[in-house]
Specification:
This protein is α/β, with parallel strands linked by helices. The chain has a single domain, classed as HUPs (Rossmann fold, 3-Layer(aba) Sandwich). Helix content is about 35%, strand content about 10%. The protein has 8 helices and 6 strands; from the N terminus they run H-H-E-H-E-H-E-H-H-H-E-E-E-H. Strands 3-2-1-4-6-5 form a 6-stranded mixed sheet. A hairpin with a 4-residue loop joins strand 5 and strand 6. The protein starts with a helix and ends in a 52-residue tail after the last helix. The chain binds iron/sulfur cluster (SF4).
Length: about 230
C-alpha cells in the first residue's frame, strides 16, 4: 500500500466528514495497523475510536513527569472503555536522564527533553503501525489551524488521522456531556491544557488556554504533531 497516496486521496474524500466516519475509514483500511494516540487530557478520542473499532490500541506516552491525575485518567480509560491502552516509556528513566543530561532538563532544553521523553517513544511504537490518530484540533493553536483530517505524516512515513480537527471547544464539551466521557480532573481545576507537570501551569484569567504550557518560552508544541519534522 502506498501510504502517501492513500493519505492524499482520503484527505480529499474525508475533508468535512464526521469524526466517526474518519475513524471508521482508518480502522477498516488499516485494521490492527491503526492506533490512536492520547495524552489523557480527556478520553474523547479513545471513546470515539472504541465505538467504531472496539479493541483499538490507544497509545499513551508516560514521560515520567505526568500529574497523578493524568495517570489516573489513563487507568480509568483502560478500565472502562473497550480499548487496549498501551503505555509507552522513554528508554531512560527520569533519574537516568538526570545523570546523563543533568537535572531538570525540561528547564534548560525542553526541546531535547520532549524529543527524548515524548517523541522518541511514540516514534518507536508507531513503527508497528501504518496509521495513527491524534486528537489535535485547529482551534487549539495557530500551529494547528490548518490541520487536515487525513494527511501523510512525512517524518514517520505514516498516515496521520485527526478526526477532531474541525471540532470547537463547544463540540468537545457537548460530546463529553452527551456520552459521559472521562476527562482529566485537572480540566476542572484551572488547567485547560494538560501536559507534563513541570511544564504546565494554570493560565492567567482570560489568557490563551494553552499559555500555561511551557509558560514564558517560545515553545508551543512537544514535537509529536509538528508538521515539518523530518528524519
Ligand atoms: Fe520534558 Fe516538559 Fe516535554 Fe514533558 S513537556 S517531556 S517534562 S520538556
Amino acid at each position: 500500500m502506498n501510504l502517501r497516496r492513500v493519505a492524499e486521496q482520503a484527505g480529499r474524500d474525508l475533508a468535512g466528514a464526521p469524526a466517526e466516519d474518519v475513524l471508521a475509514w482508518a480502522a477498516s483500511t488499516f485494521g490492527s495497523r491503526f492506533a490512536v494516540a492520547s495524552s489523557m487530557q480527556d478520553a474523547v478520542l479513545p471513546h470515539l475510536a472504541s465505538r467504531v473499532a472496539p479493541g483499538v490500541g490507544v497509545l499513551f506516552v508516560d514521560t515520567g513527569y505526568h500529574f497523578t491525575e493524568t495517570i489516573g485518567t489513563r487507568d480509568a480509560v483502560a478500565a472502562t472503555l473497550p480499548v487496549r491502552v498501551l503505555t509507552l516509556t522513554p528508554t531512560r528513566t527520569v533519574a537516568e536522564q538526570d545523570v546523563e543530561h543533568g537535572p531538570r532538563l525540561h528547564d534548560r532544553d525542553p526541546d531535547l527533553c520532549c524529543a527524548l521523553r515524548k517523541v522518541a517513544p511514540l516514534d518507536a511504537a508507531l513503527a508497528s503501525y501504518d496509521a495513527w490518530a491524534t486528537g489535535i484540533r485547529r482551534v487549539e493553536a495557530p500551529t494547528r489551524a490548518s490541520t487536515p483530517v487525513v494527511s501523510y505524516d512525512r517524518g514517520r512515513g505514516k498516515v496521520r488521522v485527526a478526526p477532531l480537527a474541525a471540532w470547537t471547544d463547544d463540540d468537545v464539551r457537548a460530546y463529553v456531556l452527551e456520552h459521559g466521557v472521562l476527562v482529566n480532573p485537572l480540566l476542572e481545576d484551572g488547567y485547560p491544557s494538560v501536559g507534563c507537570a513541570p511544564c504546565t501551569r494554570r493560565p492567567a484569567p482570560g489568557a490563551d488556554p494553552r499559555s500555561g504550557r511551557w509558560a514564558g518560552l517560545a515553545k508551543t508544541e512537544c514535537g509529536i504533531n509538528t508538521e515539518s519534522r523530518t528524519r
